[in-house]
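Supplementary Text 2. Reproducibility record for the structural model of the 499-residue chain.

All settings were left at their defaults, and a single model was retained for analysis rather than an ensemble. We include the record here because the model underlies the residue-level annotations in Supplementary Table 4.
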Amino acid sequence: MLLEEQRYIHEDLERLEQGIADRMGDEPKQIRDRLNRDHEVSQLLDQIQKQSSILLALYEDKAGARSKEILDISTGDPFREFTNQYNKIKEHHGSYPSEQAENSEQWYKPRKGPDQPYIVESMFSGEEAYGRFFDLHTCHEAYLNLPNAKRLAYLQYLEVFDDFQPGKGGIKRADKLTDDYFRYLGGLASYLESFMRRTRPLENLDKVYEGWDKEFETAWEKDEVPGWQKEASAAKKNATSRNLSTADAVWCEACEKEFKNENVYKGHLNGRKHIKAAEILAKWEETASVGDSHAPVALAHRLRERAVAEREFRVKKLTSAMSTEKDDTRVNVERRQGMTERERAQELENFYNMSNTPQNQAPEEEDDNDDDDKIYNPLKLPLAWDGKPIPFWLYRLHGLGQEFPCEICGNFVYRGRRAFDKHFNETNHITNLKRLGITNTYLFRDITSIAEAMKLWEKIQREEKKHHVDDGSVVQMEDAEGNVMPEKVYLDLQKQGLL
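Retained model, structure tokens:
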């Protein structure tokens, strides 16, 4: 019966909603449990969409079977259809007498216990730590195999893999049109998309990707994609707006390389590499400005550039959306490089012990384990991500024993020079400076005292007023011909006998 099927789907939708509510009511402490819960909720939401589409098709009743069934029940014998259904059920159970009836109320309820598997166990590698860090070793190897690519270590690659400017970590524009580079970008983009889907199962990522595609289409039509301008003049204009390391630095558009000063730049102009790069640039400019007779060649070249630029744009957007994971990955790799082999083995053992912890363990067992594993930390060392004190040599290496108070931040004490230098660019410090009436905050680096900051700001204000000339306070003079000029200019011309 179609009506019975509709009723059953409505009941199933209510059970699915209750299952989602039961899972969202608990907030797991560990990232593995929280990610596993989100994936379970995502699967239930997919089931709701599937059942809703079936229910919608039944209500639309394009074939008219539902209307016919309602008409038969309302006009005919109401017990006839009931008797037919009863006989079918009786015949089914007569054919399968040992079949067990399932309790549908238990289908979508959260299952607790040590034997329940994790959905996320097979989704992440050990390096990814359940979505906390990137695992870009494969992409790094593919990058090193690219022709004319810089020989970057893995830690350096993590800092610049999303920056495709030649001076940073990318390769030249002419070398980007190779099949190897296109496959490298495809592998990098697909990994980042997969990582984002695995770590954010409850977000509508298809809609986000669609918005990025529209943004790229708009930028490409306006010829505003950085590094992929159509005209050579636009590319040169983009080169002049690059962020160079120093004020005396010079950028060579042909070599796509930064030089320290003008003399070094002029010295490399006679080299074979520059001459060869200049010839390639001239060919590219010729290709970009070909006439209608070579339109198919130019069109094919531009389409290939578009495909590469689109993947670069996607990688930039994905990385900016997961900037926290990128920074955490770089810090984690740097931390692991400073560890001994014994410390790495201990960390790996702790990670596997956490992975083998039963899902949704009872609170009493957790309390017992906490009592048994009390942390011995007499030196009051900072705790690492696993909840244990960091090694003392690492504490000394980063200078965490040094304290740097900042009066502007409410006498907050920063431990270590690195954290102290970093806080000058943070929102809290900049906001406190603006509350004091200071707008040019970049001039107040390494200043932590309110009195010193106000003294420097008053000095800057006085200097600005000294150089500022008020047009209303300048005395205007007029000569015999009616020309109006400042008093100083008038007196100078009078002394020279020109008036």
